[in-house]
Specification:
Blueprint: H1 15-26, H2 30-37, H3 47-61, E1 70-74, H4 77-81, E2 85-94, E3 97-107, H5 115-130, H6 136-145, H7 149-166, H8 173-176
Helix pairs in contact: 5-6, 5-7
């Protein structure tokens, strides 16, 4: 069985744009562009902090979307499923009631990224609480929660392309020391 090719994070974007990103990576210029735009890693380091962060966003935009049972960083997510985040909803019958447990899991690669990238993936997964498919209504909800959603998604994809090509992360716990507290 042949191994799967690495994910193409820029699939779906115009070929010229993807080639431009690849050229910036090859010339080692993408690093400076990303670090200038997103200089610091965020302070959300634990599952509990992630849960609080997600609930804060959910409370602001999706109060009536149902409870979340669990929110956690997942180290196996990126490697096994080639996913950056997942949402699950499991319904069980308990007596005469139907109980639903909802979970959001975020790939651990987001532990050492700027807050903007974490917010983008959290907004994406929260939008799935209301909209299952990646359709127009889904992206409208993402934009309602994060007006810069599309730009953040593109910037994240360029960073992931860099990470795939070089294996060198741009942010780390060390950059966290200079980080400011969580901002909206």
């Amino acid at each position: 069985m042949r191994p799967k090719p690495p994910p193409n994070y820029l699939a779906g974007y115009p070929i010229a744009l993807a080639e431009q990103v690849q050229q910036l990576i090859a010339q080692d210029r993408l690093v400076n562009i990303l670090l200038q735009k997103y200089p610091l890693a965020h302070a959300v380091r634990t599952d509990r902090a992630l849960y609080d962060y997600v609930l804060e966003l959910k409370g602001e935009y999706l109060r009536n979307a149902g409870q979340l049972s669990k929110v956690a960083f997942d180290s196996k997510l990126h490697v096994i499923r080639h996913a950056l985040g997942t949402h699950t909803s499991i319904s069980r019958v308990q007596g005469t009631k139907l109980k639903t447990k909802r979970e959001i899991r975020i790939a651990t690669v987001f532990k050492e990224m700027p807050l903007e990238f974490l917010r983008m993936i959290v907004v994406h997964e929260l939008a799935h609480l209301k909209e299952r498919e990646h359709d127009k209504a889904f992206y409208q909800l993402c934009l309602h929660m994060e007006p810069e959603y599309h730009q953040l998604e593109f910037d994240l994809r360029t960073y992931l392309s860099h990470l795939e090509a070089t294996g060198q992360p741009l942010w780390s716990v060390a950059t966290l020391d200079a980080a400011t507290p969580l901002e909206k």
